[in-house]
Design a protein that fits this description.
CATH class of the largest domain: Alpha Beta
Bound molecules: NADP nicotinamide-adenine-dinucleotide phosphate
Shape: globular
Number of strands: 21
């Protein structure tokens, strides 16, 4: 980039993170943006996850961009299609569609020390260069299949919840569902009335909270459109509730205990059978795994065509699932609600920074980054929804907006200093990580396994605190935390 030029930017991913990032740059006069998207449509997880009942358990007025309020959300907890449409219409309104290159799966990115630029290669063999590289690939883009012996021997139909096979007719079938996370509790109540029999293989019961859902009425839509303050009040109210509950994760465990009592009461009210209730009662602190929200999950499990199986799965066999007691649970279809490879950040892209340093090596013990955004030795590389920025409670869109503003300041700094690259100082990043890990040590996330933790137990995904605390930290980019280096 020479004097007078504005930095060119490559954004990887056209989900909420990539679109939010590109809008922030656009609104601040940075137009030289290429968004590389591996798929044929925008949306990220909201394009991929089309399972029955897929919805967001964060209220829509909060799960949306602050600058793009939507007065006519169909429901408080809107479904996948509505959220996907929202993101499409926002991208269109901000004239981003022309900047998106579809079918462009990034395989490799390399920083050129001498030129101070990134070269980004895609699977089709194309190479593009830019001053700034921003990864917005999310944390939940790669489905995880379980490592169960015999998984390929099954002769029925099988699929992962994030790759739902809508061609498979479930009506009248014997269905085995493996996993009881946020995805499963949404599709199980949807498929239970259709199937002949559903065996739910539960390894760990979830804490499930009631969902205060509502269909927004035409009157509310009009009110929200005419009185934006009313929609803002709904947004603010939910934000305040999530902030309060987040306090229970680190500072005030009594809040978590109180939320736990609400969940226990919910279970008691919805599951009268003591045997089933015992199976569904968690034995680890609330908040350790992601809290779930549903009014129809427990009732579905009490139906006569459902069996909750807690015996460990030992094997998948051609006609079903074998458990440790030797029983074969026959099934026509197996649905894997087994989650995502959340801790493998940016994987499987190969990212090479200063002097050819591999990002995978820098992250050998688990991913970490300054504010989850910048990594020493990787100049002009920025991450949206990077390590330790996921929330136990709250809206990721709020976090994405905080990060987009921070990264935009970095791009502004680069624009003001042509011929320089920006790199976070080792000490700043190390200090930040130590503080984050110290706080994480006090959270309930340490007491169970989840997609928040690596196999060695390091919590690489979650932010140990409130959304506002994070926003305050990243509100202003401090130039002292960075080294601006002149390139040739
Ligand atoms: P998940 O929460 O990681 O749940 C995976 C489930 O599969 C767990 O119950 C796990 O059991 C089970 N499992 C994994 N391997 C297994 C094995 N070998 N044998 C038996 N059970 C196995 O995945 P998810 O439900 O797809 O949700 C992932 C994340 O996506 C959520 O935490 C959330 O952040 C996001 N999400 C959000 C929404 C929303 O409404 N906002 C909806 C869906 C998903 P264990 O618990 O014993 O490991």
């Amino acid at each position: 980039m020479t004097a007078g030029e504005r930095p060119s930017v490559i954004v990887i991913g056209a989900g909420f993170g990539g679109i939010g990032m590109a809008i922030e740059l656009r609104r601040n006069g940075f137009d030289n943006i290429a968004i590389l998207e591996r798929s044929t449509d925008i949306g990220g997880v909201w394009r991929e996850n089309t399972y029955p009942g897929a919805a967001c358990d964060v209220p829509s007025p909060l799960y949306s961009f602050s600058y793009e309020p939507k007065p006519d959300w169909p429901q408080r907890y809107s479904g996948q299609a509505a959220i996907h449409d929202y993101l499409r219409s926002v991208a269109k309104r901000h004239r981003l569609l022309a900047d998106i290159h579809f079918g462009a799966e990034v395989t490799e990115a390399e920083f050129d020390d001498a030129a101070g630029r990134w070269t980004v290669r895609t699977r089709d063999g194309a190479a593009r260069t830019a001053d700034v590289l921003i990864s917005a690939v999310g944390q939940l883009s790669r489905p995880a299949m379980p490592n169960i012996p015999g998984i390929d021997s099954f002769t029925g139909q099988a699929f992962h919840s994030a790759e739902w096979d809508h061609g498979v007719e479930l009506t009248g079938k014997r269905v085995a569902c493996i996993g009881t996370g946020a995805s499963a509790i949404q599709y199980i109540p949807e498929i239970q009335p259709k199937v002949e029999h559903l065996t739910l293989f539960q390894r760990t019961p979830a804490w499930v909270l009631p969902k205060f859902d509502t269909d927004y009425t035409p009157i509310q839509h009009k009110l929200f459109a005419r009185l934006p303050g009313a929609l803002l009040a709904e947004r603010f109210g939910w934000w305040a509730i999530t902030e309060f509950v987040a306090l229970g994760l680190v500072e005030y465990p009594w809040i978590a205990r109180m939320v736990g009592r609400i969940a226990t009461k919910h279970l008691e009210e919805q599951v009268p059978d003591p045997g089933l209730r015992a199976k569904l009662t968690p034995d680890y602190p609330i908040g350790c795994k992601r809290g779930l929200f549903s009014n129809d999950y427990y009732p579905a499990l009490t139906e006569p065509n459902v069996r909750v199986e807690t015996t460990v799965i030992t094997e998948i066999v051609p006609n079903g699932v074998r458990t440790a007691d030797g029983t074969v649970h026959e099934a026509d279809v197996i649905i894997y609600g087994t989650g995502f490879k959340g801790t493998e950040f940016l994987w499987p892209m190969h990212i090479y920074g200063r002097a050819g340093r591999k990002l995978a090596d820098a992250w050998e013990g688990g991913a970490h980054a300054y504010y989850g955004i910048t990594v020493p030795d990787f100049p002009n590389l920025f991450l949206v929804y990077g390590p330790n920025t996921n929330l136990g409670v709250g809206s990721i869109i709020y976090m994405i907006e905080s990060q987009a503003r921070y990264i935009r300041q970095a791009v502004q700094l680069l624009a003001a200093r042509p011929g320089h690259v920006l790199e976070v100082r080792q000490e700043a990043e190390a200090q930040f990580n130590t503080a984050v890990q110290q706080r994480l040590a006090r959270t309930p996330w340490n007491f169970c396994s989840s997609w928040y933790r690596t196999s060695s137990g390091r919590i690489t995904n979650n932010w140990p605190g409130r959304q506002l605390a994070y926003r305050r930290l990243v509100r202003k980019l401090r130039a002292d935390d960075y080294e601006l280096t002149r390139v040739a």
